[in-house]
Structures are given as structure tokens and as C-alpha cells.
Design goal:
The complex is a heterodimer of chains A (130) and B (575).
Chain A: H1 2-59, H2 61-70, H3 94-101, H4 105-117
Chain B: H1 4-34, H2 36-47, E1 48-53, E2 60-61, E3 67-79, H3 87-98, H4 102-109, E4 116-119, H5 124-133, E5 138-147, H6 155-158, H7 170-174, H8 176-180, E6 184-190, E7 196-205, E8 212-215, H9 219-236, E9 240-247, E10 252-259, H10 272-275, H11 278-281, H12 291-300, E11 309-311, E12 316-318, E13 324-326, E14 333-335, H13 336-341, H14 345-355, H15 357-366, H16 395-398, H17 409-420, E15 424-426, E16 431-435, E17 441-444, E18 449-452, H18 456-471, E19 486-496, E20 499-513, E21 520-527, H19 535-538, H20 540-553
Parallel strand pairs in B: 2-8
Antiparallel strand pairs in B: 1-6, 2-3, 3-4, 3-5, 6-7, 8-16, 9-10, 9-21, 11-14, 12-13, 15-18, 16-17, 19-20, 20-21
Helix pairs in contact in B: 3-4, 3-5, 9-20, 12-14, 12-15, 12-18
């Protein structure tokens, strides 16, 4: 009985000790992983900062003007207003409208009729830019 | 069985062991009680690591948050020569990757040491190349480096930080307390290979990164000023030059450029001469540009009217001081407006005599001369003006036209701002704010009006007169197509061996634009230009180009009110 108790005790203590040691080693392994990740993160931040610095250097007015002058590119300061020419509405035929409304072909006309029953307009379609 | 001899021997051995054990016990007790503290300390030292956490130095931004000075963590590469093999081949590869001499690298890695620097603060591409070599015994360490993306842009303002990341010049020095941050530390256990174990960290005191400075400088306007100054320096070879661009409404310095200049990224080899911010540290006799003070004071005191006429003695006047005062060109009767437009010395002195020496002195002081402007830049000088009680008999003939008074270019910019902004003397501002990494405002530097010097009406009249200087007078080369500008030329003689030199001059132009609602005041000063030396010839065209590009950049629409009265009169601009 005594031996039995002794064995149980020994096994229990050993098990507890093993669990403890495993936890500690896992903890240390995780620490190394964390450190490696922290280092990688820090490296990436540093690299990012260096790249941003390079961008700033490349965008600096002195460099830009030097490059543009070397390539003989003459630039103007843009004004506040910008004019965008829209496509002309002239020559936009009824056929084009039908195409836009998706009413082409048998199924297209059926779809248009069904839509009309429910007092719906033609389906909205993005108009292709001419 | 056991003889007495055996027993004696056994007792001897036993006693020996007892003695040894006793000695051991005494030693253990000694270690445990007397030396325990020292050994515990030694063990702690071996098991723990205290890692210093370096703060990141704050960034210096321009007014649009474009970085002007940033700190980067760069790789420095070192070698442990004792671990390295095939040194000749390694030296060849390393030298090629880092752009160093092969023999230099070879000599270093052949030293009988455990640590030798190969190259510090490598650029990223060099660092990548060395890492790719994977040479045993070659290691990296991160070191901070202060870098300046625009090289020499605003170099005298920004200043620089040394290898230890501490400010040494300019704003880097003046605001080092804000920029440097404070270091922290992390105390943790370490393993047999001296690696820190993060999970056994027992003390952590985080570092506080430095704060960021936001300047009033605009990097594009600064570039425009630098570019035009460089062109002028190449053309007229002055020994020094500067341009200040100021917003007269707020006192904000938009650009401050100096020549000679230097590259902030390689400041170590630069002479002190190039590091000087001449716009605030240099004093000079302003010459004719100072006539704006005399004229404004006389108008404000209602001692003169625009149509009052002054006889300018046909260019030479022997005054009561006993000396002969000259104009650069003979004039007869001139109105007050014409006196300023033509920059007549004789006329200006006669205006000053109507004003009186005390009044003149009061206004010189009110305009801020003889006092520090209070700008947040190191090395500012107050200039010098004697009180009337110490004036000589000829002072009233000299001071009104900018002699016997010494000023800094910045003081002149502030004085012109008084006229440009409706009469208020503004404290010049170079820093807008201090903020943290997240953009939170920590400290604001407010716009400060020092005093009202002139009435709105006087200021407006002066602006009108000064636009006439550019349209019809000595400043015609300062004209800017599409905009009304006003200003004043100046050509002052330098003092050489106690007398005014006839070969060394300071050419300057000070002006503002647009006339109706001035948005910029620009001072251009060139010290000893040659072969030409008139402010109207040398400095005015620089002003014109700086203002043209600055106004376009600021999106200020062209709008000319005054019509061009005539073509540029090249004889007129010589002053």
C-alpha cells in the first residue's frame, strides 16, 4: 500500500513537473517567436519609412524640375477650372436608345413589355461613351 | 582484523575529511553570508538584460506637412574577423556590395579583433546586397540617421543633427528638447546565448518619441526662392545673398534662402560661413530701401502731402553738415511721390528734416529696428540705431536714406509688411506648431501683432507710392506680368577702412504683391555683386521672378489695376 502511494505521489509530482517544464519551454519558444516577429515588424516599419523618404526625395521640386528640364518638358501651373468635353448628343439614334434600354431581340422586347405592365421604365443601363 | 595502524589511518582520513568538510562549510557559509550579495548581483547581471529603447527623433515638416527632416533607422555593418573564413574572397564581395575599396575591407577583416566596423549607416540597397552575401561573421546593427530629403533646401533654417541624433544647428538645435524625445528601457531575463526572453520581462519603461515641428515654410516657395537666388549668384557672383518671402498678414516666413549654402546630408565638411543664416544674423546699412520708413513716418505725421514739392538741387546739395549730398541722377523739383519713385537722396533728406529727428527716430523704433524681431531662429541680431541725443551733425542727412543705421534683412521684411498689411508690425513666425506622432496639437505658436505703426490710410498711400516705384521709378525691372507690385530699390555702399567704399555695394530690393491685397513681401539682398551692383538692376529682377512663380503657385489670380504707363526706362532703374 505504501509502495502504491509512493508511486502515485512520484507519478503525480513528475507529471506536474513535466507540465511546468513544458509550459516554461513553450513560453520561451513563444518569446523567441514574438521577438522575431517584433524584429520583422520593426524592419518593415523602417523599410516603409525609407521608401517614403525615397518618394519624398523623388518628388522634391528641385529634382522634378531638373528632370523635366533635362527632358525638355515644359509645364504650366494648372488653373482651378478644368473643362471636360462631354460627348455630343447629336446623332444619338433611336436604335441606340433601344440598345441602351436592352429592348433588342425577342426576349428583350418581352422583358420591356413585362416591365411596362408594372409601370416600370426601361432598365437603367450605363451608356457607352461614344 | 583491524590493527592499530589501520585505526589510526582511518581516523586520519576521517579527520582529514572532517577538516575538508569543515573548510567547505566555512567557505559555503562565507559565500552565503558574506559574499551572497555580490554573487547574486553577478548572477543577475548574467541572467538579465536591460535593453535601452531609443526614441525616434521628431520630424520637421513644412506648412503643408511635407517632411523636411526625418530620422531613419539604417543598417550599420560590422564583422567578427575571428569567425570569418576565406577573407580575400569575402573582402572582394563585401567591397563590391558596399562601394568600398577591396584592400580597405581586407585590412579590416584581417585584424585580430572580435569586432570591427565595416561601414556605418548603409543605404538600403547596399544593406540588401550585403545581407544577400550571407557571409559568416558579418553582422548588422540598426543606427538612427537624420536625413533631409531636399538636401540644401532651407538648410540654414532647419540646421542639422549630429551622429548621436542631437541637434547641432538651426531649428534642430533650438527645438532639440521637443524633437529628441526621451529614451526608455526594457529589463528582461536572457538565455545562455544572451538573447532576451520577452515573456520573462519584468520591467518596461517605454521610450517617448520626439515631437514633430510644423514650420511656416512652404517647400515649393522655398524652392522658387532658392532657384532664383542660385541663378542670381551665378550671374552676379556676390559673396553672400538672401531672399525672404513673408506673408505680411500673419508674419509667416514662407521662404528664407541664403547663399552660400550647403547640403544638410553632408554637413560635416561645411565651413561656418555657409552655415550662417544671413537673413537674421547679418547686419548691413540698408540704403535706399530704408526710405520707406522715412516716407511712411512723414505721411503718418502729416508733415508732407503727396503733392508737396521738394527741390532736389539738380543732384548735388551742400547741406548744413558741410558735406555734399548727391543723387544718382540730377533732379529739379519733384513731388513727394516722385522723390520716392526716383529715390532721390536729397528729396528724402528734406522730407526727414520736415519730420524732425525725434519723430524719425520714434518711427524707426516703431518699425522694429534696433530690437530683435523675436523670430524662433538662433543667432538673430537686433541691428543698431543711435538715439537722437547721440546723433552727429550729419546724421539727419544720412539716416533717412539708410546710412548710420544697421538692420537685418528680416527686419526690413517686417517693416515692409507694416506697409503691406495695413500698418501692423507682425512678429515673424517660422514655426506654426508642435505636434505628436498622431497629429495632436501639443503647442501652437500664434500669429502675433506687435503694434499698430501706421494708419490703414497711410499704409495704403505708401503702397500706392511704392507701386509707382515699380511702374515708373527705379524698380521697373521688378514688374510682374499680370500683377501689380510695389517695392523699393536700394544700393548701399559698404564701409571699408572707415569710409564708404566706391567698389563694394549691397544691392537690394524689397517689395510686395499684389498691391491691392498684398499676400507676399519679398526681400532680395546681394552682398557685393559684380559687374552690376544697382539694386534696381541686380535684385529687382530676382524679386520679379520669385513673385511671379509664388503668386501662381498660391493660385492668386492675375489682376492688374494700374496700366503699364511706359516701357522700362533703363536709366531710371540705376539705384
Amino acid at each position: 500500500m505504501r509502495v502504491y502511494k509512493f508511486l502515485i505521489m512520484t507519478v503525480s509530482v513528475t507529471a506536474v513537473a513535466l507540465v511546468y517544464v513544458t509550459q516554461q519551454t513553450s513560453l520561451i519558444r513563444l518569446s523567441y517567436d514574438i521577438k522575431a516577429k517584433e524584429q520583422a515588424y520593426s524592419e518593415l516599419l523602417d523599410r516603409n519609412k525609407i521608401l517614403l523618404y525615397n518618394v519624398r526625395q523623388l518628388e522634391s521640386p528641385a529634382r522634378l524640375e531638373k528632370t523635366l528640364l533635362a527632358k525638355n518638358v515644359k509645364m504650366e501651373v494648372p488653373s482651378k477650372e478644368r473643362f471636360i468635353l462631354l460627348s455630343s448628343a447629336q446623332g444619338y439614334s433611336a436604335a441606340d436608345n433601344a440598345v441602351d434600354a436592352g429592348a433588342v431581340g425577342f426576349f428583350g422586347r418581352v422583358r420591356q413589355t413585362v416591365a411596362g405592365l408594372f409601370a416600370l421604365g426601361p432598365e437603367a443601363q450605363a451608356k457607352p461613351l461614344k | 582484523m583491524y590493527t592499530r595502524a589501520h585505526k589510526r589511518r582511518l581516523n586520519l582520513v576521517f579527520s582529514l575529511f572532517i577538516v575538508l568538510l569543515s573548510l567547505l562549510l566555512i567557505r559555503v557559509i562565507y559565500i552565503q553570508l558574506a559574499r551572497s550579495y555580490d554573487y547574486a548581483l553577478l548572477a543577475k547581471k548574467q541572467h538579465t538584460a536591460v535593453i535601452e529603447l531609443q526614441p525616434k527623433r521628431g520630424t520637421i515638416y513644412d506648412r503643408n506637412l511635407t517632411p523636411l527632416a526625418v530620422s531613419l533607422n539604417l543598417d550599420s555593418v560590422f564583422a567578427n574577423p575571428r569567425e570569418m573564413k576565406e577573407k580575400r574572397a569575402a573582402a572582394k564581395k563585401l567591397a563590391s556590395a558596399m562601394g568600398l575599396g577591396e584592400q580597405f575591407v581586407y585590412d579590416r577583416i584581417c585584424r585580430d579583433k572580435g569586432f570591427v566596423w565595416l561601414k556605418r549607416k548603409l543605404n538600403p540597397s547596399e544593406s540588401d546586397r550585403v545581407k544577400a552575401l550571407k557571409i559568416k561573421g558579418v553582422e548588422f546593427i540598426k543606427e538612427p540617421k537624420r536625413v533631409y530629403p531636399n538636401s540644401s533646401l532651407a538648410s540654414q533654417i532647419i540646421g542639422y543633427a549630429g551622429t548621436d541624433d542631437r541637434g547641432l544647428e538651426g531649428l534642430e538645435l533650438r527645438y532639440d528638447e521637443y524633437l529628441k524625445g526621451s529614451p526608455g528601457y526594457r529589463a528582461t531575463l536572457r538565455d545562455a546565448r544572451r538573447r532576451a526572453i520577452a515573456s520573462f520581462e519584468y520591467e518596461y519603461y517605454p521610450s517617448v518619441d520626439g515631437l514633430d515641428l510644423v514650420l511656416t515654410i512652404d517647400d515649393v516657395i522655398q524652392y522658387i526662392a532658392e532657384r532664383e537666388l542660385e541663378i542670381a549668384v551665378e550671374k552676379y557672383h556676390p559673396i553672400g545673398a538672401c531672399i525672404i518671402v513673408m506673408d505680411p498678414r500673419t508674419g509667416d516666413i514662407l521662404a528664407m534662402s541664403n547663399r552660400p549654402t550647403f547640403d544638410l546630408n553632408s554637413f560635416q565638411k561645411v565651413t561656418p560661413e555657409k552655415k550662417r543664416n544671413r537673413a537674421v544674423t547679418d547686419m548691413y546699412e540698408p540704403g535706399s530701401i530704408f526710405k520707406i520708413v522715412t516716407a511712411a513716418a512723414a505721411l503718418q505725421q502729416e508733415k508732407v502731402g503727396l503733392k508737396d514739392r521738394f527741390y532736389c538741387e539738380n543732384g548735388a546739395w551742400k547741406h548744413a553738415g558741410g558735406k555734399v549730398l548727391h543723387d544718382h541722377k540730377p533732379h529739379g523739383w519733384l513731388t513727394f511721390r516722385q522723390v520716392i519713385e526716383k529715390s532721390s537722396n536729397i528729396g528724402t533728406v528734406k522730407v526727414a528734416m520736415k519730420l524732425g529727428s525725434n519723430n524719425l527716430y520714434d518711427y524707426i523704433k516703431k518699425f522694429g529696428f534696433g530690437d530683435l524681431t523675436g523670430i524662433d531662429l538662433p543667432g538673430e541680431v537686433p541691428g543698431f540705431i543711435r538715439p537722437p541725443s547721440k546723433w552727429s551733425g550729419t546724421s539727419i542727412y544720412a539716416i533717412p536714406m539708410g546710412q548710420e543705421v544697421v538692420v537685418s534683412p528680416l527686419q526690413m521684411a517686417c517693416a515692409m509688411s507694416v506697409i503691406a498689411n495695413g500698418g501692423k508690425l507682425m512678429k515673424p513666425r517660422i514655426i506654426q506648431s508642435v505636434q505628436d506622432k498622431h497629429g495632436e496639437l501639443i503647442k501652437e505658436f500664434p500669429v502675433t501683432a506687435v503694434r499698430q505703426v501706421l494708419s490703414e490710410r497711410t499704409a495704403a498711400t505708401m503702397r500706392d507710392i511704392l507701386s509707382g516705384v515699380v511702374e515708373d521709378g527705379t524698380g521697373q525691372l521688378a514688374k510682374v506680368e499680370g500683377y501689380d507690385v510695389g517695392g523699393k530699390t536700394g544700393t548701399s555702399q559698404k564701409i571699408e577702412n572707415g569710409t564708404y567704399s566706391h567698389s563694394k555695394f549691397i544691392a537690394s530690393f524689397i517689395g510686395f504683391a499684389p498691391v491691392r491685397d498684398p499676400r507676399v513681401v519679398v526681400v532680395v539682398m546681394l552682398d557685393q555683386p559684380h559687374p552690376f551692383y544697382y539694386g534696381g538692376v541686380v535684385a529687382a529682377p530676382v524679386f520679379s521672378k520669385v513673385v511671379r512663380d509664388t503668386l501662381r503657385y498660391m493660385d492668386i489670380r492675375p489682376g492688374k489695376v494700374t496700366q503699364a504707363r511706359r516701357e522700362i526706362d533703363f536709366e531710371e532703374v540705376e539705384d
